[in-house]
Design brief:
Number of domains: 2
CATH architecture of the largest domain: 3-Layer(aba) Sandwich
Distance between the termini: 54 Å
Radius of gyration: 19 Å
Number of helices: 12
Order of helices and strands: HEHEHEEEHEHEHHHHHHH
Shape: globular
Strand content: 5-15%
CATH superfamily of the largest domain: Response regulator
CATH topology of the largest domain: Rossmann fold
Helix content: 55-70%
Number of strands: 7
Length: 226
């Protein structure tokens, strides 16, 4: 390898893409490969593949979705935080930033951005994280600051604090009218597992029956998350 080629290789930032949708991975790959100094060193669609790829490709940055096959993205975030602390993590997700960004950062991610953002903004988030800084929107930062500086007895905060990440996902999907089968398909889990989550949510939140669970889920899903 020529000195110039070796120097270029050393300057290239290796990025691993983890998403369970091939089209998303391909689009993100094209976006990253078009940027100077960035390259995609591997792809994965679930937690197990991602952990294997981290060992074989040694990425500097992992860009991951929260919705993965057979697991929630925060489980992978914690795995990377605990076993590969030098690897940076940026969450790129369809889920509401105001609800999930704080959870992702707490789990060990270094940034959070939604898939609805423009490509230029996603690239800006990547550059931001690569500089060693936490990236999230101003709205998300204001929300976190608000939670820290004031005590709140609102049910919104109660629900978010008491439910797990996966339970929050199921609760939200119930609230927007998705059936058990649709929730199972979206999260790549069995319908019986969805029913288990529904029962846990009902018990944790002390709802009397399925009707109250549905009513409160609809109310919560349509309420502001600030």
């Amino acid at each position: 390898m020529k000195d110039s080629e070796r120097s270029q290789t050393e300057r290239t930032t290796r990025i691993l893409i983890v998403d369970d949708h091939p089209l998303i991975r391909e689009s993100l790959k094209r976006l990253v490969q078009g940027e100077s100094g960035l390259s995609v060193c591997g792809e994965a669609e679930d937690r197990e593949q991602a952990l294997t790829a981290v060992v074989t490709t040694q990425p500097h940055l992992v860009i991951l979705d929260l919705s993965l096959k057979n697991s929630h993205g925060t489980e992978l975030i914690r795995d990377l935080r605990d076993h590969y602390p030098k690897v940076l993590q940026l969450v790129l997700s369809m889920y509401d930033e105001l609800l999930y960004a704080e959870r992702a950062i707490r789990a060990g991610a270094h940034g959070y951005i939604t898939k609805q953002e423009a490509p230029a903004k996603i690239l800006a988030a990547i550059r931001h994280v690569l500089k060693g800084e936490i990236y999230w929107s101003e709205k998300a930062a204001v929300r976190v600051a608000s939670k820290i500086t004031r005590r709140s007895g609102s049910k919104n905060n109660f629900y978010e604090d008491i439910l797990t990440d996966r339970e929050i996902q199921v609760f939200e999907m119930i609230g927007i009218g998705k059936s058990t089968r649709q929730i199972a398909a979206s999260l790549h889990i069995d319908t019986s597992t969805v029913e288990t989550y529904r029962a846990r949510i009902k018990d944790k939140l002390n709802f009397n029956d399925t009707s109250e669970l549905l009513q409160q889920a609809i109310r919560w899903s349509n309420s502001p998350k600030m």
